[in-house]
C-alpha cells in the first residue's frame, strides 16, 4: 500500500512537499499584505528570507509562487544563482520571459522595443556590459525600465502581480553586480506611475511587482555595511528559525484523524493512517527542522507497507536516516566561523539555567564577557541559532540536540523493528 510512488514526504531541496508544516506567518504575509497592497498600488517592500540550510527558505517562496500562479499572477521560475554566475544575465532572461507573458514583445511602441533590446543585450553580456563602451543605459537601468513596462502591463491587465524569486543570493560575490541588481529591483519596487481614477482625476500608484530574495544568513553581511539603509528601506528581512512542535503536529493531524489518501491498483483510494505515538515520534526526532521532518516522514513511510504507520516504524526509519540527519547539522556547524562554533559548544556544555553570557564567555575562553557580545549577537539576530534571553537558549533545536545529547541516535533499548 505504501511505496516510493505514493510517498507524500519530500526531503529534497527546493521541493514544495505535499505534507506542509508551519510558516503560516510568511504565507499570510503574502496573502494578506504583499499581494493586496501591490494589487491596489500601495507601496510595499520586497521580502528577503534568510536562514541556515534545511529551514525551507526556497520551498516557502516556491509555495508562495505556486499560490500566486494559481491566482493568475505572472511568476518567474525560481532563479537559483550558482557560485560565480552573473546574476544580471539570469535575471535579465527572467524579465524577458515576464515581458513575453505580459505581451510586450508584440508592442510596437519605441520605448518598449528599446527596453526589450537593451535587456536582451544584458541577457547576453551581463555585468560585463557595464565595462564596455556600448551605448544605452547601464544594465541595472535597462532591467528597471523593462520591469516598469511589465508593471504597467500588469496594471492594464488588472488583479495581477509580477512576482520575481531570486534564490541563493549569498552566491552573488561581485559587489558591483549585487549593487546593480539590488538597485534595479529596488527602483522598480519604489517606482510610481500616474493613472486615471474614476472622476477623471490622475493619481500616482506603485507598480504591482513583488520581489523575494532567499539565501543563507551570510547575505545579511553583504547588504548591511555596504548597502545599509537603502536596502533596509526597500526589502524586509526575515530570518527563519525552527518550526514549533505544535505546527509540526498539526501537519500530521490528517494522518492521525482521517489518514492520507493513496491511489491503489485497480482504481480507488485507500488511506494510510498514523498512530498518535508515531506522529509524536516524528515531531520529537526532527527538532523543528523542515528538512528533517520530511526525512523522518519519508523513512517512516518506507519502513512498512501496511495501512498504519506505527511508532516502531518511525524509529526504524529514523535509524536509517540518522547518519544523514547528523551530517546535516554538522554542515551547519562546520560553515560557522570558529569563534561562533566555540561559543555554541561552550553554551552546550553548560546546564540550561547557567547559560548566561558571562558563563558562556568564560567557558569559551573569551577574556571578558563583552568580547563575546558581538558573537552572541550574530548567532541570534543574523543566524537565528540562539536567543539572547535570561538565560540564553537554543532556537535551532537540532543544533542543541546534536551538541548536548546522543541525538540523532535512537537509544538501543528503544524499539524500532518492523
Describe the structure.
The protein has 418 residues and is an alpha/beta fold. The longest helix has 24 residues. It starts with 23 loop residues before the first helix and ends in a 14-residue tail after the last helix. It has 15 helices and 13 strands. Helix 9 packs across helix 10. The radius of gyration is 24 Å and the shape is globular.
Provide the residue-averaged pLDDT.
Answer: 88
Summed up, the helix count is 15
Strand segment count: 13
Low-confidence stretches: none
Mind telling me the C-alpha Rg? 24 Å
Q: In percent, how helical is the residue content?
A: 40-55%
Give me the strand/helix succession.
HEHEEHHHEHEEEHEHEEHHEHHHHEEH
Strand content: 5-15%
Q: What kind of sheet is the major sheet?
A: 6 strands, parallel
Task: Choose one word for the global shape.
Answer: globular
Distance between the termini: 15 Å
Assign the structural class, choosing from mainly alpha, mainly beta, alpha/beta, alpha+beta, or little secondary structure.
alpha/beta
SSE order and pairing:
Elements: H1 24-39, E1 46-50, H2 57-70, E2 74-75, E3 79-80, H3 87-101, H4 110-125, H5 139-157, E4 162-167, H6 175-190, E5 192-196, E6 202-206, E7 209-215, H7 218-234, E8 235-239, H8 245-257, E9 260-263, E10 269-274, H9 276-286, H10 290-302, E11 308-309, H11 311-334, H12 338-349, H13 357-364, H14 369-382, E12 386-387, E13 393-394, H15 397-404
Parallel strand pairs: 1-7, 1-8, 2-4, 3-4, 4-7, 10-11
Antiparallel strand pairs: 5-6, 9-10, 12-13
Helix pairs in contact: 3-4, 3-5, 4-5, 5-6, 6-7, 8-9, 9-10, 9-11, 10-11, 12-13, 13-14
